[in-house]
Amino acid sequence: MSMEKLRGELAAFIAGIYEGEKKVLVFGEGDVGAPVMLVGEAPGEQETLMGRPFVGKAGKNLDEFLAGAGMERSALYVTNVVKFRPTKTSAAGRTVNRPPTQEEVKLFVPWLRREIELVDPKCVVTLGNVPLKALTDKGRVIGEAHGRFMELEKRLLFPMYHPASVIYNPALKAVYRDDLAVFAHWYKNL
Ligand code: URA
């Protein structure tokens, strides 16, 4: 099974579920075969416009943090749990982001697991609560799990805060850097 084929199957599956609605899918990108796979929540507006994960504000934060830890995004594989932008209409009538629903996450998890199998990374880095809960037991929360390696079947899983969380909570910036330093240490010794 190639990544192209997996994406084609996923696109057909989503088109079947959301018949009549136009869902723009944003697939993962990067090195298929990378030792590290980053998994975010869902694409936002910029990601949907450009058809690439983490290219908006959260992506800029992510790139900054990675650079600070001496890591390059092109050497990784980056994806999201939910592959379309979850939206709602604001009180002002604008289309805005919302968190993905449980149903949306549930729909995508088997596809994410297949994507992980294909990339076959040594470590999956989850960004925020959504991918952490999607791949482990639901009781796990990022506030407790962040910055420590755990097992994910035959791989490692390293939970980190979502790079957008520092936008809302600048105090997390130092925590984010510390966690990434732990990860970068492991990465350099690969
Ligand atoms: N936030 C995410 O979780 N993923 C993206 O691709 C962009 C923002």
Note poorly predicted spans: none
- Report strand order across the widest sheet: 1-3-2-6-8-7
**What is the C-alpha radius of gyration, as a whole number of Å?**
16 Å
Oligomer: single chain
Q: What is the count of helical runs?
A: 8
List keywords for this structure.
alpha/beta; 8 helices; 190 residues; binds uracil; globular; single chain; six-stranded mixed sheet
Short description:
The protein is an alpha/beta fold and about 190 residues long.
What does this structure look like?
By secondary structure, the protein is of the alpha/beta class. 44% of the residues lie in helices and 16% in strands. The chain is built from eight helices and eight strands, in the order H-E-E-H-H-E-E-E-H-E-H-H-E-E-H-H. Strands 1-3-2-6-8-7 form a six-stranded mixed β-sheet, sandwiched between helices. It has a two-stranded antiparallel ribbon with strand order 4-5. A hairpin with a 5-residue loop joins strand 4 (87-89) and strand 5. The longest helix is centred in the middle third of the chain and has 18 residues, at 102-119. Uracil is lined by residues 40-44, 47, 53-54, 56, 58-59, 80, 164.
